[in-house]
Amino acid sequence: MELHIAKDPQQLSENLAAWISNYIQEVLQDQERFTFVLSGGNTPKQLYQLLAKEPYRQMIPWEKIHFFWGDERAVPFEDDRNNAKMAYETLLTPLGIPEENIHVMRTDILPEDAAAEYEALLKEYFNNSEVTFDLVLLGMGDDGHTLSLFPGLPIVLEQKAWAKAFFLSAQHMYRITLTAPVVNRAACVVFMATGAGKAITLKNVIEGTFNAEQFPSQLIRPQDGELHWFVDEAAAGALE
Question: Do 181 and 222 form a contact (C-beta atoms < 8 A)?
C-alpha cells in the first residue's frame, strides 16, 4: 500500500490527475485499451473536471478508455444522486467519450436484473482473465464504507458474485454495487479521502486490526495489484 498526502482537496485532485494520466499512458504502451472504474459522490468531482481539461484532455488517449462504475444508486439517470449523471456532466460529455466505451449500471430495470446484467457484461468483457480492471477509483465514507459495501450488511461478506443489488433501508433506496472479489482482481486500486471527519476511520482502516464488517474499506486488498491512498492532511491527521 502506498500513501500519498496532499495539503488540501484541491492539491489532492491535481496530484491524482497527474498520477492517473501517467499511469494510463504507461499501461497503454503494452495494451490496446484501458478499463477505468469511476466513483460517485462529491470527492471525485474536482478530479473529473481537471481530467476533462488541458493538459489531460490532449495527453490521455481517451478513445482507448472504457468506463465502468463501482456502484450506483437505483434512481433515474436524471436524478442528481445518480453516479453516472455526475460522471457524464463532469468528465464523459466534456471529453466526447463515445457511448460504446461507457458501461453504466442500468437504473431503468429492476436493481437485481441490473446487477445480473452488469456481472454478465464484466465476465464477457474480461473473458476469464486473471486481472479485471486497470484502475478502480474508490471513495471512503465517514463510516468506512466503500462502493455500496456498508458496515454490518451481508453484502460485505459476498465471496462469489461480481455485482449485487440490495435495498439499503437507511437510505430508503436500492443500491447496485461491485463486490470486493472483482475489485481485488484489479491491476490498481486508488482510494480518495478528504476531510477531518474521516481521520479516525482512515486510521482504523489503514493501521487498525482487520475488521471488515465494521470498516468495509479494509476488504479492498488487490491480490496482485497496487493499492494507493490519496488523502489530504485533514484526513491523514490521526495516522501514525
Answer: no
